[in-house]
Amino acid sequence: MPTPAARLNNLPAYPFAVLGQRIIEMARQGTDVIRLDIGSPDMPPPPAVIDALDANAHRDDVHGYAGYKGTPRFRQAVAGYYRRRFGVELHPDREVLPLLGSKEGIVNLALAYLDHGDIALVPTISYPAYSMGTLMAGAEIYWLPVNAAGGYLPDLESIPADVLRRAKLLWLNYPNNPTGATVDLDVYHRAVDFCAQHDILLASDNPYVDVTFDGYVAPSALQAEGARTCTVEFMSLSKSHNMAGWRLGAAVGNGEALNSLLQVKSNFDSGHFQAVYEAGSVALDDTPRDWIDARNDIYRLRRDRIMTVLPQIGLEAACPKGSLYIWARVTDGQGGANYCARALDGAHVSLAPGNIYGPDGDDYVRISLGMGDARIDEALERLKAWWAETGG
Ligand SMILES: Cc1ncc(COP(=O)(O)O)c(C=O)c1O
Description:
By secondary structure, this protein is α/β, with parallel strands linked by helices. The chain has helices at 15-28, 47-57, 72-86, 102-113, 128-136, 161-166, 185-198, 237-240, 255-268, 274-286, 289-309, 336-347, 373-390; strands at residues 34-35, 96-99, 119-123, 140-144, 167-172, 201-205, 231-236, 249-253, 315-316, 325-330, 349-350, 352-353, 364-368.
């Protein structure tokens, strides 16, 4: 066999792929592991979405290639969603680009914008695809320090001038994975001004914008004045509509950036199955806000249940107003990776170690809310018993 490309030397395996393999091996040996590590919704999309997939899959005229830019109807549905939800007008053909899930677009945006010697600005705790995409493009990561005290907001003014000269992308994500941090529109106003001033593309990754609690309503970066000149936002149906496995999202915003992204992705993929675009259009056009609120209420109750137990299992966390996660600090000082390994062995509960989200995640674990209530309760009971016996 030939040796794999040198680019793989700098590209670690995707952390969840590695963890998943370990859990498959434990399951093979008969161990029942409860997975609170993975951020995948456990509930179905609205019934009308499934009906639309079914009805459209039976049509004769949907089985060919749908086109590199998806279908006009899906682009219009995305534009309609932005109009209704954020008051943002998007041109469906120039300012909306459908994606095979937002992760695809995130990595391809890096390939579209970054060369050797270029820099992407990535928070020190963030979704791994921002740094992985940068590495895949052969470019450099400049880690922007974020922490609990600063609300997990990067201090853009602290970036050195020589870094800014080479920086081409700034990644922001609120409601945030993994920290659950949320922002108001003012943060995007400042980020847009900063990026416009320094000729940087603001990449706002916003898959949790409709997964929020306690009355908090998350903004879009495109609501900030002037955003369209320097911003691309990634939207996704994965979490908003419980459609993670359907792989459907879109990049929206600056048309020039979307063209560059299309130039890359049209060489990789040939669009989605048309019936999926049709069902996605139904999801965006017809899902009542009540459905989203009721789903979020289920997550909120899970969040509250877990928050109550944290002190009994050696963890502490701020209560998140958005996202699918609780970002909890390990109080025994031994770090998140150590805690996760021990919890997996001792309680057969899998949590995500904070260090997979970047260099400042060492002291933390991420707990997902995407698991049914009975399994969450069982996981909490197991963790309590394990901690009482070994840790507390
Ligand atoms: C912050 C963030 N961005 C992007 C994604 C990718 O979502 P999608 O399913 O649309 O590819 C995820 C998935 O967990 C995420 O947490």
